[in-house]
Amino acid sequence: MDTFLIILTFLYSVGWIITFLWFVPTMKDLRHKKPSANTRTYIIRTTTTFFTSLYGIFILKNLVFIIVINLQLLACVMVLALRMRLNYMKK
Length: 91
Hints:
Layout: H1 2-22, H2 24-31, H3 39-60, H4 63-90
């Protein structure tokens, strides 16, 4: 059973790394001034991911979960910042 849990933990973390990498094309688009992300969507996504991160830190206290959710939070913040910069540059 221990081996199964180790493999499951590893696959969980790999899945979230892939999720983080999924943000890269959006980040590239925004860096090249192509508005491919909805600001409201990323505000909501960043907020909910932030609360999930706090839940992981204070309730779950699971290092793997904390790392992967904060990786996703970082990606959300980056996309939101790039999108807001693009909105600001339009004005």
